[in-house]
Amino acid sequence: MPENVENNEQSTEKLLGGITGKGFMPGQSGNPSGRPKKKPITDLFEELMADPELVAGFKSAIVKSIMKGGMAGVMYMKEAADRLEGKVTQPIDADITMSTLSERMAKAAERIKE
């Protein structure tokens, strides 16, 4: 019987690194580098926009695209702007009324009676 007691004590003991010992250690992040701050395409756009000659070419291409009525160039530049400047935030108007759980339960009970 003492053997069972010893086995129970060992099974409740927390093992570092999980069962195999190869898992995460206490205080160790599962993703130490974290999510990348930017994607490679954003770096490419930043590099292109740093060249004044290319920016001038982009300007003339955008004007030509808009004058022709083509959407491809406009959509391309919108994507570049979203990546470089960040997407435009849209304000949200909301009328929120807070009620307690007891008030909601009372209203639900009234609906059930109807």
Structure description:
The protein has a domain at 37-87. The protein starts with a helix and ends with a helix. The chain is mainly α. The model has no long low-confidence stretch (mean pLDDT 77). 57% of the residues lie in helices and 0% in strands.
Chain-wise SSE layout:
Elements: H1 2-12, H2 40-49, H3 52-68, H4 72-85, H5 101-113
Helix pairs in contact: 3-4
Computed over alpha carbons, the radius of gyration is 30 Å
Distance between the amino and carboxyl termini: 65 Å
Helix content: 55-70%
Order of helices and strands: HHHHH
Taking all residues together, what is the mean pLDDT?
77
Task: Specify the structural class.
Answer: mainly alpha
Q: Please indicate the percent range of residues in DSSP E strands (runs of 2 or more).
A: under 5%
Discrete helix count:
5
**Overall shape:** flat
Instruction: Give the biggest beta sheet.
Output: none
Poorly predicted regions are none
Number of strands: 0
In brief, what are we looking at here?
This protein has 114 residues and is mainly alpha-helical. Helices cover 57% and strands 0% of the residues. α3 (52-68) crosses α4.
Features:
114 residues; mainly alpha; 5 helices; 57% helix; flat
